[in-house]
Design brief:
single chain; alpha/beta; TIM Barrel; globular; 16% strand; eight-stranded parallel β-barrel
Length: 335
């Protein structure tokens, strides 16, 4: 077993998932504005530290994706944030892309940037304690998109990124996100997601990436948020599994879904059904941002000093998702 494979398996063992706390300062400011809390470095750290010190970190969270600001911060107990996370048994990770920019040649689509200087940044993050990294490619579905150019360009970037990350002895999370925004059907989502994932693996193999040392972070197969062609949660699970079985090489150890605009309960329910039907060797878990944090953030915003109460809300959500990652969740467990 390679060291990278061991890290990937450790992150996703026993129903554990990933807390995506890698919101950029701009995104975090929007979230805090939404609950009327001033977005200062101190408040951003306070909320994140509240989650990182919760008891569910030990039982439910195998990895935490951080943002550049957070990985360099020091907790109220004077230990570095990666150390605080490592003490819970979870692995610290870091978002390393610099965001989705307009794709030259197809200005209505996006390409993720951040390859320039990446090797040097990765060495720095490794020294700071990061064990894994994240890079997100985004694709829209319309009549003409995603274009071949977008699918090819983002797959190439994800592969170059992954190759550099493994060179620095970290596990790359490969995140090709086919967005939920739009009027497309679940069938179109299935077809486009399959095409996107297959192209990503073509490029990963071309770039000699060790597939046993990555984690795939895909979207689930859903109808667009403006589509009238909604499907049942059972269908979401079956189509998602079918897509991944046909698109992901068997060497990949684990798949951690993004929540992609689903509500907290939806994201948990769909993950649970995927695991109930999972007849593959892939670990199927979660890498959620809002779907793990939203209720905790709302609660915390009423009194940012109520650490214990906020942690209780977060612990519940983390526990529900870890049960779902084992196919053991049911609606009557929700508060």
């Amino acid at each position: 077993m390679s060291e990278l494979n061991n890290i990937a398996l450790k992150i996703l063992e026993n129903g554990k998932g990933i807390l995506a706390a890698d919101e950029s300062t701009g995104t975090m400011t929007k979230r805090l504005d939404g609950v009327n809390v001033p977005s200062t470095p101190e408040n951003r750290l306070l909320f994140r530290e509240t989650l990182f010190s919760a008891s569910s970190m030990t039982e439910c969270i195998g990895g935490v994706i951080l943002y550049d600001e957070t990985i360099k911060q020091v907790s109220s107990k004077k230990n570095k944030i990666p150390e605080l996370i490592s003490e819970t048994g979870a692995c610290p990770g870091i978002k390393v892309d610099t965001g989705a920019k307009v794709l030259a040649g197809s200005p209505d689509e996006k390409i993720t940037e951040g390859l320039d200087g990446l090797r040097e940044r990765l060495k720095e993050y490794f020294k700071l304690g990061a064990k894994f990294t994240k890079w997100r490619g985004v694709y829209s579905i319309t009549k003409n998109f995603p274009s071949r150019l977008s699918i090819q360009s983002n797959a190439h970037a994800l592969a170059r990124y992954s190759s550099l990350v493994q060179e620095c002895n970290m596990v790359p999370i490969v995140e090709p996100e086919v967005l939920m925004d739009g009027e497309h059907s679940a069938k179109e989502c299935y077809e486009k997601t399959s095409e996107v994932i297959k192209k990503c693996f073509e490029e990963l193999i071309l770039h000699k990436v060790d597939l046993r040392g990555i984690i795939l972070k895909p979207n689930m197969i859903l109808a667009g948020n403006k589509s009238e062609d909604k499907i049942s949660n059972e269908e979401v699970a079956k189509l998602t599994l079918k897509c991944l079985k046909n698109s992901v090489p068997s060497e990949v150890p684990g798949i951690a879904f993004l929540s992609g605009g689903q509500s907290e309960i939806e994201a948990t329910e769909n993950l649970n059904l995927i695991n109930k039907h999972n007849d593959t060797n892939f670990i199927m878990s979660y890498s959620y941002g809002r779907a793990l944090q939203q209720s905790a953030l709302k609660f915390w915003s009423k009194d940012i000093k109520n650490i214990e109460g906020t942690q209780k809300v977060f612990n519940h959500r983390a526990k529900m998702n870890t049960l779902a990652a084992q196919g053991k969740w049911s609606k009557d467990l929700e508060i």
